[in-house]
Amino acid sequence: MPKVTFNNKDKSFFNTLKSSVDQYFATHNIKRTGNWALYSKTAILAPLAILIYAFLLFLSMPVIVSIALCCILGFVLASIGFNVMHDACHGSYSSKGWVNETMALSSNLLGGNTYIWKFKHNIVHHTYTNIDGVDDDIALSPLMRQCETQKWLPPHRFQHYYGFVLYAFTSLAWFFVMDFTKYFNQKVHTTPMTKMDTKEHVIFWLSKFLYAALFVVIPILQLGWLPWMFGFIALNLTLGLTLAVVFQLAHVVEDTDFVHADQVEPMKIENEWAIHQVRTTANFAPRNKFISWYVGGLNYQVEHHLFPRISHIHYPAINRIVKQTCAQFNIAYNEFPTMQQAIASHYRMIRELGKKPA
């Protein structure tokens, strides 16, 4: 792993920001973790997913309706990932550790693995955001070129066309390829993982078999091979595209910074870690209440990267504090008023990166 450090000797920006955020929670006498607003989402999304799954297995319906329901199930599972799994994996779903650990296992029901995801996301991505050579989230090369320091290949000229198609295969790749690659290599991109204990090995294999039973074996036995195949593909393409687009809009858009990690020499980022997070991250559609509800506050990515252990339900409130502090320290704050504008920015960026460098 390339040694990357930040200039944290003078953390004046983050210290000022943290003090203001701490004061907000103290003044309002509220916990930083989830509350009824988050738990009500769980009470809606989890039963809805189970209900749709049961309908698909046991009710006879036209093919087009079944496909549509599979797509809806994909959207619901994505929202469970955004709201329940994501907060729980960061320890912000509840103030009780065992609740967080239990809810974090919803990642396994989506086809992933909580242990690997926590290491990949919480540790690698949140520490080394947009650092090429370390951050696994921008390591799609050679399929896609996501920053200027990545090697250009002729197929990249068309990546703004095939990119979104590629994103749709995210969840299929997650279950069938990426988790197993990380598990057997015991490495996330260039970073060796912390050693998994026996319990985590058992959970990994049991959850993979459980996912295969729920989403492959039982549907095939109940519905037949062909209906299962079309339904499974529809569900996962919807799930994969939704997950990928939301996370791409957080970092791979215009005006966000990228850094290249030297694979030989240790490097030091000029800024403190918190400033690096602001400059490598972007928000989108912050005033759209439906999007904020559906994506679990992940449209407030700047706030999330600065305070990952604060539940997303508090992000709209601390958004104003973060903006004011950024203005105070003359730090550019990246935000797109609508999701459409963020998608357009991402499209323009990958189109430009697809052009052959001069």
Automatic annotation (TrEMBL):
The chain crosses the membrane at residues 36-56, 63-85, 161-181, 202-222, 228-250. The keyword Transferase does not apply. Pfam families: FA_desaturase (PF00487). Residues 65-336 form the Fatty acid desaturase domain. Coiled coil: none annotated. It comes from the Bacteria. GO terms for cellular component: membrane. InterPro entries: FA_desaturase_dom, Fatty_acid_desaturase. GO terms for molecular function: oxidoreductase activity, acting on paired donors, with oxidation of a pair of donors resulting in the reduction of molecular oxygen to two molecules of water. Keywords: Membrane, Transmembrane, Transmembrane helix. This is Fatty acid desaturase.
